[in-house]
Amino acid sequence: MKLIRTIAVAGLLLAAGFAVPRLCATEIPQAERRSGYTFMSPDTKAIQDDDTANPGMLWVLDGEALWKRKTGTADKACADCHEDARASMKGLAARYPAYDKTLGRPVNLEQRINLCRAQHQQATPLPYESRDLLALTAFVAQQSRGMPITAGADPQLEPFVAKGRDTFMRRQGQLNLGCTNCHNDNWDKHLAGSAVTQALPTGYPLYRLEWQSLGSLQRRLRNCMTGMRTQIYDYGAPELVELELYLMSRAHDMPIETPAVRP
Amino acid sequence: MASALINVPKKAKRGDIIEIKTLMSHIMETGYRRTATGELVPRDIITSFSCRYNGVEVFRADLFPAIAANPFITFFTVATESGKFDFEWIGDQGFTETASAAISVE
Amino acid sequence: MHEPKNSSRRQFLSLAGSAAVMGVIPIVTVTPAEATPAMLASAIRNVVGTATVQTGKIKIDVPPLVENGNTVPLTVTVTSPMTENDYVKSIHVFNEKNPQPNVGNFYLGPRSGRAQISTRIRLADTQKIVAIARLSDGSFWSVSADVVVTLAACTEEVI
To answer: I need a surface site. Which of A69, A152, C77, C102 has the fewest CB within 10 A?
Structure first.
C-alpha cells in the first residue's frame, strides 16, 4: 500500500512538473520526519541553541585554528588551497558522504579530510575520533549549518545507498534486531529513559552529553551496534560509510545542525 | 590545545548588570573511575576559576569533580567602566589557561 | 500462582537481557563509593560552622528529570539587593550521592549586581542537591531540589 501511495504521489509531482527524487530511501513519511533535536528536553535544546553555551563550539574553534596551521612535508595549511572556509566549505558537508572517482566509492567527510592531508599536505592521517579530526570535521561541517542535506543525490552513489539501506533493514546480532526495528517502527517510543529517534544524522559531529565530548556519526553507529550485540565494523569500514550515506539520504532536505547537542 | 568561549557584551551602559558566560575545554576526569585492570584514573580537573574586571576580582569559583566536562559557568557583574575582563582557569597537573574580553561602557 | 521452578535461570536470563540492552562491556567502571548523608552534613558544616541555616531567599533551577546525569544544567539565584551593605558573599552547592559531596563554591560581591550563577553538573544517580547562600550580614540560607536521573539505554565501549 505504502509503495503504491509513494508511486501515486510521485506521479502527481511529475504531473505538476516537479523533479522527483529517486523513490526516496526515506521509510518514514517525509512530513513525519523530525530531527533528533525535537525529541530533546527544553534544557538540552537550550544548550544547542546558544553558541556560547554549546560545548561543540570548542571543537569548531580548534578546527578553525587547525584550518590555518601548516602541516605535513608539503608545509601547507588547508587555508593555503581552500582559503576562507566560510566560502569554500559552505554546503560541502550537506553533500557528504560523496563519491570519490579515484577510489570508486563514497567517502565521508573525515576520510575526505585525511585524503586531502595525504595527497596535498603529505601529512599522516588523523586517527578517527581524535580531537584534531573531530575539530576539523566540525569546523568544515559548521559552514553548512542551516543548509539542506543533499547527500546521496549523485546517481553514481545509488548502489552504495542501497547497500547502506540493506544494512539498516537487515536483522543482525544476538538480539536479531535491524536498525529499522527501532528507528522506523518505534521512533515514537522510549528505550529505558531515552527517546528512540528517527536515525536522521543532521548534526554530526555532535556533542553528546553522555560522551561529554564531540563524536562522529560512526562512533554513534558503533555505539548502537554494541547495544544490538552485533559485529561492530571498524572505523572507516565501507559498510559504515554506506550506512552513513543511507542515513544522510533519509535526511534529504533537512537542515544541517552541526555542531548539534544530543543527550 | 585548549579553547575557551567567552561571551561578554561588547558595549554596555554604566550601571547595567551584564551576564558573562564562559566555556572552557577540559575533560574534568573525576579521579573516581578505574580502568579494566583496576587502576584508578588520576584526577584531572579544573579546581579554580576567576574573573577580574580591570584588575579587580569580581567573581571566583572552586570547582569539584561534580562539575561536568568542558566547564560552563555564567555569572553577573555591574558594568562600571570601559576596559578588560581577565579570566583564569587553574587545575590539576599544572593546568592553567587565561582569556580576556574587552567592554566599552558609556 | 506458584514459584517458577527455574527461578535462578530466569534471573540469569533477565540480567543477561538487561546487560544486552545496556550494551554494557565495562572497560572503565565508576567506583561505587558514594557520599553519605553524614558526608553531606559534614561538608555543609564546613561552610556554615555553627551558624543556623535558614530556609528561603535562595532558589535552585534544575530539571526535575534529566536525560543524562553527565551534564545537568543548574542555576542558583538568591534574592538580594546586592548593595555595598547587603549582598551575597558566596553560593555553595552540594550533592547527596556522588562520590564527593561538594559541587562548587561561587564567590560574589556587591559588584555582581545580581546573585545568580549557572553551571552544568554531574549526578551519578537520582538524588538531592542542596544550595546554601552566605550573606554579607553573616546569615546562611538554604534550599534543596530533587533530581531524577534516567540511565541511557545504550552505553558504549570506552574508546
So the answer is: A69
In this structure, are residues B68 and A47 in contact, taking their beta carbons and an 8 Å threshold? no
Q: Is residue A93 in a domain?
A: yes
Q: Find the domain containing B8 and state its range.
A: 4-105
Quote the pTM value.
0.86
Q: Rounded to whole angstroms, how far apart are CA atoms A122 and A152?
A: 29
pLDDT in tens, chain A (263 residues): 444 444 443 444 344 433 434 444 448 999 999 999 999 999 999 999 999 999 999 999 999 999 999 999 999 999 999 999 999 999 999 999 999 999 999 999 999 999 999 999 999 999 999 999 999 999 999 999 999 999 999 999 999 999 999 999 999 999 999 999 999 999 999 887 789 999 999 999 999 999 999 999 999 999 999 989 999 999 999 999 999 999 999 999 999 999 999 99
Name beta bridge partners: A208.
A213, A262
Query: Which cell numbers in the block locate residue C26?
Result: 565495562
A contact residues 190-249, partner C, Cβ 8 Å cutoff: 191-194, 209-210, 212, 219, 222-224, 226-229
Complex prediction ipTM: 0.96
Total domains in chain A come to 1
User: Are the Cβ atoms of B74 and C117 closer than 8 angstroms?
Assistant: yes
Do C115 and C59 meet the contact criterion of CB atoms below 8 Å apart? no
Q: How many domains does chain B have?
A: 1
Q: Which helix (H) or strand (E) holds A9?
A: helix A2-15
For residues B35-61, average pLDDT: 95
- Give the mean model confidence (pLDDT) for residues C26-34: 46
Among B32, B58, B64, beta carbon nearest to C111 = B58
The residue of chain A nearest to residue C153, with distances taken between CA atoms, is A192
Task: Find chain C residues with C-beta within 8 A of B17's C-beta.
Answer: 113-114
Q: Return the pLDDT at B34.
A: 87
From the DSSP assignment, how many helices (H) and strands (E) are in chain B?
0, 9
CATH number of the domain enclosing B98:
2.60.40.10
CATH number at residue A138: 1.10.760.10
* Grid coordinates of A116: 586531502
Contact A55 B21 (CB under 8 A): no
- To the nearest whole Å, the CA of A5 is away from the closest chain B CA by 49
User: Angle at Cα B12 formed by Cα B7 and Cα B15, nearest 5°?
Assistant: 115
Cis peptide before C37 (omega within 30 of 0): no
CA of C72, closest CA in chain B: separation in Å?
Answer: 8
Residue A78 designated active-site: no
